[in-house]
Amino acid sequence: MKNTNFGKPLSRLIIMVAICMLSLHAMAYDFFYTYQGKKLYYTITSSNTVEVTYYRHPQNNNNFVSGDVVIPSSVTNNGTTYSVTSIGASAFQSCIGLTSVTIPNSITSIGDSAFADCSGLTSVTIGNSVTSIGGLAFYNCSSLTSITIGNSVTSIGASAFQSCSGLTSVTIPNSVTSIGDSAFQSCSGLISVTIPNSVTSIGNFAFDSCSSLTSVTIPNSVTSIGEWAFAWCSGLISVTIPNSVTSIGVGVFVDCSGLTSVTIPNSVTSIADWAFLNCSSLTSIVSNAVVPPVIGIFVFPYFNTCNVIVPCGSLEAYTSSQWNDYFPSRIEEDCSSTLQEVESTREFVVYPNPASGFITVEFEALQEHSLLRIADLGGRVIKTFDLSAGTESVRLDLRDLPSGVYTLMIGNTTKKLIVE
What is the pTM of this model? Predict the structure, then answer.
């Protein structure tokens, strides 16, 4: 006999699921409020403020909010006025008809994916009270051409502006300390970016595939540049890495085919795999590191004509390291100037002078690594000595120098030295 009861458990399950879904909708928001003709839903928080929750009616997902939206700083429900302090996760996600949004100063946070996939959004003004922009907050807002980030924002979340292909410029305020992973990845129209001195870290893939980016200044506050941070930025022409950076990560500038020159500071001790691979236009690398940075595999393009300039006295160290594998016979030292030397106005004392063997040079304690050079009367540097930070005096062996008159140099300060 056919069992006519088998459908009853299934019917009960469907009813239970429907009830749960209705319950979730009921819990997702507390009330709606219409402002300037736009109905938005709000959730009351534990601090008795409200969060913008929905952009559409929970029972009619096709009822998207569109046009220009101004979020009010406060709303009233049942006689109680609430301050609007946050925009919830996915609050306006996929509102393709949304063209602009004004966020009031009462808002302190913008949730994850809050405006993701709002392809018609052209402008956003973020109030000065916002302290954080969540991950994917403006992901794939392809029509967004400019954005004003308030002066209270301290962090830009992962993928916050990823794939905003219409974005041409962005100014990051001095309040920001970190730029998250993939924050501006694939912003193919981005031409310029200003990174303030407050930023200490740039996340992985942060500006990856920003193909229109021609230049970037990385401030001295940055201590960490994430992996692949500027990879595939084919329009990037030159880059100077600040003295605060100690290592250059994996693939940071890989496939920056327009990159012609790079300056590596003395602070860098290592360069990871693929860091400058396929940078086919490189013609000049200036490494100010006295000790050659340890380099990984496929760091630079092979079979290139790029020249490498290294500090005076460091030629042998570079040519006997892995650097020579990439740049055979193309490494040369620059003895016309020095990096981080004693200030030109600083005086020093040399004794005995004239000398026949050893001399002592005394000066104020050095704040940074410096170089002391001895040149002949023709200006050719024949001896170079490293001076570590904190050094106050050094004793030099000159017994191998022929008798004659020499010039001893620290920075732009010189002393005549007579060797008998």
Answer: 0.72
3-class SS letters over the chain: CCCCCCHHHHHHHHHHHHHHHHHHHHHHCCEEEEECCEEEEEEECCCCCEEEEECCECCECCCCCCEEEECCCEEEECCEEEEEEEECCCCCCCCCCEEEEECCCCCCEECCCCCCCCCCCCEEECCCCCCEECCCCCCCCCCCCEEECCCCCCEECCCCCCCCCCCCEEECCCCCCEECCCCCCCCCCCCEEECCCCCCEECCCCCCCCCCCCEEECCCCCCEECCCCCCCCCCCCEEECCCCCCEECCCCCCCCCCCCEEEECCCCCEECCCCCCCCCCCCEEEECCCCCCEECCCCCCCCCCCEEEEECCCHHHHHCCCHHHHCCCCEEEECCCCCCCCCCCCCCEEECCCECCEEEEECCCCCCCEEEEEECCCCCEEEEEEECCCCCEEEEECCCCCCEEEEEEECCEEEEEEEC
Is the Cβ–Cβ distance between 173 and 131 less than 8 Å?
no
pLDDT per position as a tens digit, 158-193: 999 999 999 998 888 899 999 999 999 999 999 888
Q: Is the peptide bond before 301 cis (omega within 30 degrees of 0)?
A: no
Cβ count within 10 A of residue 377: 10
User: How many whole angstroms separate alpha carbon 137 and alpha carbon 62?
Assistant: 21
pLDDT in tens, 326-365: 999 899 988 764 433 333 335 788 888 888 888 988 887 7
